[in-house]
């Protein structure tokens, strides 16, 4: 069953960061996964997550990069914010209103590891891939955010 937000549905407010890890070929690393409440509807999405108490967005970006895909960076290597957005979505039967900030970072395509992921990430992320702008434009798979190709172009230019 797909839930639909209503005026009566409680909404969790969340501040988050999204990270665009970019390799030397201008490709972005994306994760593939699904909402545990809707496993038959997979999608590609950017690395990132919610800020912890007292954490800056740049600190959260570096932490999320390490936890979700095992890549190391420091806040001074981040470029951005590239964009900010407020989105509303459901995940694991919870309705969120999320303010998110996007950063980019140049990375070597080191071996990616899911070892630092928490239980919900392990249960809902099943793959990763590097996407070029052309591959993003050509995929028929859902990709979030919708304007990722534009963000990728801005990230590559900012990292040049």
Automatic annotation (TrEMBL):
Keyword list, A-Z: Hydrolase, Magnesium
Organism: Microlunatus parietis
Pfam families membership: NUDIX
UniProt cofactor(s): Mg(2+)
Name this polypeptide is given: 8-oxo-dGTP pyrophosphatase MutT (NUDIX family)
GO molecular function terms noted in the UniProt entry: hydrolase activity
Domain of life: Bacteria
Keyword RNA-binding: no
Domain Nudix hydrolase span(s) in chain numbering: 12-155
Family affiliation: Belongs to the Nudix hydrolase family.
